[in-house]
Amino acid sequence: MFGPDLYATLALAASILAPALQPRTDWVGDIVFIKKSQTTVGQMEPDGTFTPTGSSRSIQYVVTREEKAHVQVVQEGKRVWVAKDDVVRIKDAVDYFTKMLDQEPDNDQWFAFRGWARFRQGKTDEALKDYAEAIRLSPRAASWYGNRGLIYVETKKLDEAIADFTTAIDLTGNEIGYRHRGMAYSRKKDFAKAAEDYAKAVELNPDSALNQNQLAWTLATVPDAKVRDGKRALEAAKKACELTDHKNGGYLDTLAAAYAELGEFDKAVQWQEKALQVGDIPVKDQDGARK
Questions:
Q1: pTM of the predicted model, to two decimals?
Q2: CATH code for the domain in which residue 35 is found
Q3: Would you say 258 and 234 are in contact if contact means Cβ atoms under 8 Å apart?
Q4: 27-83 pLDDT, tens per residue?
Q5: Cα distance between residue 123 and residue 141, in whole Å
Q6: Into how many domains does the chain fold?
Q7: Which segment of 120-134, 172-186, 219-233, 277-291 scores lowest on mean pLDDT?
Q8: Closest residue by Cα to residue 192 from 227, 229, 231, 162
Q9: What is the domain range of residue 51?
Q10: Residue 53 placed within a domain
Q11: 40 vs 43, 105, 152, 224, 239, CA distance in Å?
Q12: Beta-sheet pairing, 70-75 with 87-89
């Protein structure tokens, strides 16, 4: 999962909504980074025991809940738990990955992880230097091109972002590269190309709620009438909601938008109210740095 053909997930594109935070604690609302690849994630049982269900797919997460030795985060639209001992908080992340580089100075992963931490701390130039070094050490690591592309998106260097995402696609043909490039095209207001890339991401992985939601939101809301397609938007939005058991308010909001595009305003209001009940808070582009 954490090979050079993947990237990771954090908060970045406009159309995805992240779950509402619980009452703030020392951890809730904080950004955390995984300490190593293949970090175990899982679910907390009613009796407080932790049941592993898979591995992390992201470098960075936002904490939504805290429970003793574990924190809850969102991974591709779904809530999962991870041990506190397996993550490092953003304020300590750069120092942590620098120490790892002191031990393994030619490890491209540590450059990439530190680069993302620096980016999240607002040190964009230093972040790009770290990614340049990660790519020099591992020039076929699609993940690093994808992550650097996300930095370019946020710094409004969209042509550079598209070039990096295209390289990632050329290296792996991975769905994530198409989804990220679709985001960049959307930022450029090239909505036709954005929709095309999102559709390709769905084709490659139809069981990704994130892919389905990005496609649905684009087809339901973009200002270009030639791109909007309410019927396809509704189909994708329903799938995204089904994949997340109708527990992601952002995806419910997309479903409401799809119904509105079709002129079914009663259903649009119904699902918008449901989204508000779930209590999710909009954040920009919940899609990001992979490893």
A1: 0.83
A2: 2.30.30
A3: yes
A4: 999 999 999 888 999 999 999 899 999 999 889 999 999 999 999 998 877 889 999
A5: 23
A6: 1
A7: 277-291
A8: 227
A9: 17-86
A10: yes
A11: 10, 26, 30, 42, 27
A12: unpaired
